[in-house]
Amino acid sequence: MTTITHLARRAATIAVVALLAVFIAxxxxxxxxxxQVNPRELSVQEEQLMQQLQRGEAVxxxxxxxxxxxxxxxxxxxxxxxxxxxxxxxxxxxGVIVGMLVLLAAFYLIKGKVRIESGWSGRTLQRFNTVxxxxxxxxxxxxxxxxxxxxNLVVGRMLILPLVGEEAFGTMTAWGKVIHNYVAWPFMxxxxxxxxxxxxxxxxxxxxxxxxxNFGGFFKKGVHPPAARFNAGQKVIFWSVIIxxxxxxxxxxxxxxxxxxxxxxxxxxxxxIHGIGAAIMIAIILAHIYIGSVGMExxxxxxxxxxxxxxxxxxxxxxxxxxxxxxxxAKPRPGGAERPVAPAE
Length: 345
Ligand code: HEM
What we know:
Layout lengths: L1 H53 L4 E2 L11 E3 L1 H36 L11 E4 L3 H30 L1 H4 L1 H33 L7 H8 L18 H25 L7 H29 L8 H4 L2 E3 H7 L1 H9 L4 E2 L13
Protoporphyrin IX containing FE binds next to helix 3, helix 7, helix 8 and helix 9.
């Protein structure tokens, strides 16, 4: 009996010790386990997300804000669109811009710089006043900033990232996006100013047909088709800037404020028009910058000092010169000396 009692007591002691060991093991291990489980769970979820992404499935979650669409990280339609967009937009953008650069290089090689055929006269005409030049340079500088920061979004990942590395590219792209969104507003102001100032002189007229028939006189020596304040080529630039700029502004506003779009498809349309419109407009402006600077002797002065040489004006805007001279506008160049004619290229 004593032995049985003794055995029972020993069994009870072992059971209590075992229970205690289990309790200590459980309670002691709990915090450590809790710390390990969470990260493991997270990594499992991450892996699932990656697998879902690779399988082309939608990755969505729950959100507590009214905009339920914000719960979609990516949808198959969104990914297809993104791939198509990246590839197609890249090709169109690079194609249009490189195409224009090749054309301009060919024009320069064949034609060289367009000279003032009758040489510098030494007399000048006021072509653009201060307000006009302010409107032009506001539109021009903001457009160039928008073009560079916008191009980075389309071609940067492919062309710039490999050169500067991920960190620098990330920083410059984030800043570029901020610049793009803010500089858009002064660009729109510039558009309004030049539209108000120049729309009257850019209405198509009969003389434009003659200018176009003669290719502006660019390819024949001694041919200078008549033109008023703006010739047909400049009218094309003006209307491209106004219509293209307005289209980029409207679609840009829909992109800055996505909630304005009625549907996701609407937003995709805005992005497509914005991207393709910008590529075309950049190409057109490249031609404009070329002819307004290195491509044509005497042209830059119009937007630099605001005054152009009388002979330049006679060759490119004969009807406008007649008008201005009727008002007694031509003035001797300060210092009176004629500019030396640079040797032909
Ligand atoms: C460095 C860049 C630029 C230069 C050197 C330049 C130069 C010029 C010059 C010299 C003129 C006057 C031409 C004349 O006497 O009739 C002009 C006019 C004009 N510019 Fe620019 N420009 C530049 C950029 C831009 C940009 C980026 C835009 C618009 C986005 C623009 C829009 C216009 C318009 C609408 C006109 C009036 C129409 C015309 O003459 O073609 N310019 N520019």
